[in-house]
Amino acid sequence: MASEESLLFCVPEFSSQVFCGLHSLRNEGKLCDIKLRVGEFNLRSHRVVLAAASSYFNAMFTGDMKESRQDEVVLFDVEFSALEDLVNFCYTGRIEINVDNVQNLLCASSLLQLASVKQACVEFLHRVLHPTNCLGIRSFADTYSCVDLVEAADVFAVKNFSEVARSEEFLTLSPEAVVEMISREELNVRTEEEVFEAISAWVRRELDERKDFLPELLKNVRLPLISPQYLCDTVSSDELIRSNLACRDLVDEAKNYLLMPERRSKLQSTRTKPRRCSEAAGLIYAIGGLTSSGEALSTVETYDTLTGQWLPGLPMSTLRTRVGVAVLDNKLYALGGFDGHKRLSTVECYDPQFQLWKAVTPMNTRRSALGAVVVNGRVYVVGGYDGHISLSTVECYSPATNSWNFVSPMGTLRSAAGVTALNGKIYAIGGHNGLSIFSTVETYDPQTDTWAQSPPMGVRRCRVGVATLNGRIYVCGGYDGSAFLNTVECYDPETKQWTFTAPMNTRRSRVAVVTLGGRLYAIGGYDGLSNLNTVECFDVLSNRWTPVASMGMHQGGVGVGVLPRGPHA
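Above: the chain's sequence. Below: its structure in token form.
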């Protein structure tokens, strides 16, 4: 500890300057005391730098190994270009990773025990996963014990099976690997026909060597769930199937299941149970909104992540734009909104089992630009605009009594706020009061019927889209009073901090945001010039937004919700 008669002098950047000096000396070939050789190539360096940066070199140069007494070390199983990059990293702390060098760098950094570079390579491979390379990356990651990357590649391959099955990598898999993949409960397929076609292509790739594996593969195709037409016209007529007794037995099992529905309870097996892919679990419903000319709509569209298509749904009875949407007990609620002439208090509910909309008790207050959310089996509507002023009031709907009741109001008048639920609490985020646009956030606790302030966003926003994903809140786009935004902020309730993530590709206010299959979907909106029918999807792992199919009937201002996939889909 410094005393009054001493001075502690510190230059924070001095160590960096020293390493820059050492790097210059190495480049000039000065004071180097070790030569690293790979084949016919060699690289001079300072063993003290290598030992300080790498556990591998530390053990080599400071222990009793013979290399500690040599001025030349021969290295094997490493590419010279990767070694050169890693030695430079030891001096500079910088390295460029790209698709051409990532595998060599990961191999070399594993050997040299440069954990930080190895992790950077793993994260890079996470970001470049694609249906054409994910199986190869998975095998490579397994070789070098990159457990997280193996898991990520597995999940990616299962989610994108339809495309992966058409890749060259799939056709070169071992029989065991194919069986392991197609047996997965979470395999993302719209129909079992896709699985049958995948194994058929795999077998026929090397027919003589692979045809004996067909019965084991076919056991993992859920033939009873295939359409009767496809089963008869394609599967049972396949010469490979017809010539194999075990395969014919599996086809007969499926035919019995399909032809005798009264016996299905006694014919249950793994093959009769639908798969449980998270993305296949639901359909996105876009309801109401605007035409390109700004007129209100009653139309409904559904988006299927498996087909990548929007299809028309049953329209509502009422025109509604800036409508609130909530999902409760597998039913979709359309709440309030604006019909082109007046703000609405009416509510209608869509039941997919019966494929119909029906009216329920209206809210106590007319509201458009409201927030709607479900907590503890009840629907809450928050704030909005009644045609005269922004609202602070909050109402709660109980389906058991088909009635609405007011609960404690917010502390602030908020219209066009983002509203979502997380950990049993309701968050009202941003919005405006007709005069000011807010970055502030209020949180409601239904247990105590109280509102409290939460940390504000980094940017003020109204007309935002919000959703929760992986225990965090994402706020997308909006309007700050002067600009239409494409920025995205993420709130972590554990740290109580907001951070920016990758921005959307398009500026979107009045954007609807929903979560499905571990991804965010930003739907429609307004970019400052026109209402939008475009949609983009956010992958947290890659921190990237990518376009998906555009809506066919809507041009912004929609409300969105997700309903489970069922017989109606």
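The mean pLDDT is 92.
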